[in-house]
Amino acid sequence: MIIKHSGIEPKIDPSSYIAPTAVVIGNVSIGAGAKVMFGAVINSEGSRVTIGEGTIISENAVIRATADGNKEHFVAIGESVFIGPHATILGGVLEPCCYIATGATILHGAKVSSGSVVAVGALVHANAVVPKDFFVPPYSTALSTKCSMTSRR
Predict the structure, then answer these.
(1) Which of 107, 134, 136 is nearest to 121 (CA)?
(2) What's the CA gap between 30 and 47, in Å, rounded?
(3) pLDDT one-digit tens code per residue, 21-37
(4) What's the predicted TM-score (pTM) here?
(5) Which of 143, 62, 81 is nearest to 109 (CA)?
(6) Strand pairing partners for 145?
């Protein structure tokens, strides 16, 4: 379902695939060959979402850009990114060729650099920076700009 919000309709490249039960709302731009699978929700709310060419958003993933007063928490997803089922992206930047596994969460202002992997159930905390080609282990938390790890169990 494609929904106009605040007078802005999503821009979806004709070569991309949006599953019939996916929902794309507002100021969203989806690049060529991208796939948004069943049950996924992409909502620009008070900001904007860009999704790069060849990116896959898996089943029941939630991608949400918001705003806090005048501060926008946009989502920018690069080319060839994989976002697993039930993953949540709440603002932030995912550079090209990242892998975000099932149930992972990325919070406002975080950056996941190219080639990095955020494993099953891991959390990238607000404003954290995951370095290039870094592996965030399952059920751990990436904190601060040095990407310290702590267990969530």
Answers:
(1) 136
(2) 15
(3) 999 999 999 999 999 99
(4) 0.90
(5) 143
(6) none
